[in-house]
Amino acid sequence: MKTPDTNKILATIDSFTANDLPFTAYDITKTLRIDGFMVRHQDVKNVFDTTFTMMWDYNRTQHPTLGAWVYHPDTMSVTDYNPYEVVDVKPHSVKIKTSKLTKKVAPTNNGVVNKGGRYCLPSTYVRSASLNPHDTVYVVIDSGKITIHKHNVGLGRPLMVDCYSNIRIPKKDFEAAFDTIPSKVNITLTHTTIEIT
To answer: N or C: which end of the chain has fewer CB within 10 A?
Structure first.
């Protein structure tokens, strides 16, 4: 068994947040263990304690009956979380069940923005860049540009390619780069990057 580093833990969290799914720290621990990693739950909790407030547009609320801290989008109540129905976790995949939170509401020229405000970079671009489901990529935000790197360049925040070969980029990244989500973007592929301008 291998041991995950902080970036792998963060990328696993991103696989939940990119799909607007509620989760607990233990859901992340279980996902990593099923994917073949040897990880202590306390190590995962430590990542949440040191990075949660800086990384995601999610709320943290204690579940009234479970007692666990649930991380969930603003559009969802903590009582909507059900550890047996929200995510079906299998080795090397996170199977997303349909919910009201993943409706497509704002098409752009080459991607879709979901209700939670995340831009979905289509799988055609992701596959063309030789990326596979569950690969970790690194997002660098500049004024007027979002660059997705295949390899850690030391500056990027990790994201995970989802099980459908999409990359879901949070609304806050678009706001940082463009002030808002643009109605049209240009996508440029190189052998090591995907650039959105």
So the answer is: N
